[in-house]
Hints:
GO terms for molecular function: transaminase activity. Its cofactor is pyridoxal 5'-phosphate. InterPro entries: Aminotransferase_I/II_large, AON_synthase_class-II, PyrdxlP-dep_Trfase, PyrdxlP-dep_Trfase_major, PyrdxlP-dep_Trfase_small. This is Aminotransferase class I/II-fold pyridoxal phosphate-dependent enzyme. Residues 45-390 form the Aminotransferase class I/classII large domain. By secondary structure, this protein is α/β, with parallel strands linked by helices. The chain has helices spanning 6-20, 60-73, 87-100, 110-121, 136-147, 160-171, 194-203, 227-231, 260-269, 271-275, 281-294, 298-319, 340-352, 382-401, 407-413; strands at 28-30, 37-40, 43-47, 104-107, 126-131, 151-155, 176-182, 207-212, 238-243, 253-256, 332-338, 355-356, 358-360, 370-375. The protein has a seven-stranded mixed β-sheet, sandwiched between helices. Residues 417-424 have low confidence and may be disordered.
Amino acid sequence: MKDLSKQMLYVNDVFSNARDLGLIQVKAHQDEESSRKISIDGKSYISFMSNNYLAFENDERVKEAAIEGIRKYGMQTSISRMYMSFDHYLELEDKLEKIFGLPTFLASSTTLGHFAYLPVIIGRNDAVILDQFVHESVQLAVNTLKADGYHVEMIKHSQMEMLERRIKALSEKYDNVWYMADSVYSMHGDVAPMKDIEMLMNKYDKFKTYIDDAHGMSWIGEHGKGFALHNIPRHEKMYVITSLNKGFGAFSSALIFPNKLTKQTVYNCGGALRFSAPTLHAGITAASCIADIHLTDEIYERQMRLNELITVFKQKAIDLKLPIINYAHTPQFFMGLGSVELLIRFSQFLMSKDFLLSPSTVPAVPVKHSGFRISLSLYQTVEDVKNLCDLLAEYIEVLEKEGSFNKEQVLKGFKMRDKQHDKA
């Protein structure tokens, strides 16, 4: 193995230490009944780690649909969709088009979807602007374009004035200017300023957007169409991709197009679609069952219950003055701690109280921006949410009294973004 860089050595040491303490890379067992709890070494913990916000993945109807998919079609059929599509693939795409109200095509993952989508829609004389925190999978796909000589640059997170300046400057030289962003950012749970983005698309002829809606899917919008399309239902210059794993609770991803011509062109020319492995049949039939639920009023009942959990968490966290980095109305929150050492101590405390959160540190976030990612889902109860907030406040008070934690300094260190972006 090659010699590791200084940063990689540090990351390796941090993860090794956390593993030795039983905080990560653990062998776990999921509660077969509800997914509310996860068992580690025979002890059960209430989990706030799942991104399956509406709790579809353990629904009996969905599990039966997945089983039926295997019974009827087998595990997979190893034939490229370039040559043929089975009926249940096309049926799912039809249902997704009803949900989104736009032409849609399936890919086996969002990452492969980016690699299929972007090289087709971005022209040789186009410029690409990446938001600082756009998902790494988007950045990986764009890096292949950059290596091929395309103009790629990055701007500070959600800075619309800076974006507009770059649109004006780049429009003088390039045919189109693309902005790539997440609708809901996976780490802090803050949201893209979609209305500002729409205004810029309307104002500048050459300006187009590519939105990753992976964490915005299902929990918001008509038929659960997601955060991006909830805010901008249709725009000829907006291209969207979303995951069917997280809020949707199944498998694969959906490429959403502004028109049928673009869909067919990506189908014809998207290399990652031609050569990647087919999606598992069980994932397709499970997703089809979930799509059926999205097209009924049940989706709104689930959205309403999740909305209650989000509201309870936000109010309780505000009352207790927890160091939450962002208060957008999404199922994803981030509590800042600052140091890896505090993160490890806090993780041990929470596990002693039978709670699991996602510890986040390098390389996912800068080392001084370590903290917990808190994911709300219908697997939890209102009481679970309140108890978690009380525990977080209890241990923060312990740390503050011993002088190892200062809430105000931590929040200042995170350089909280403009408050208008923290309100969804």
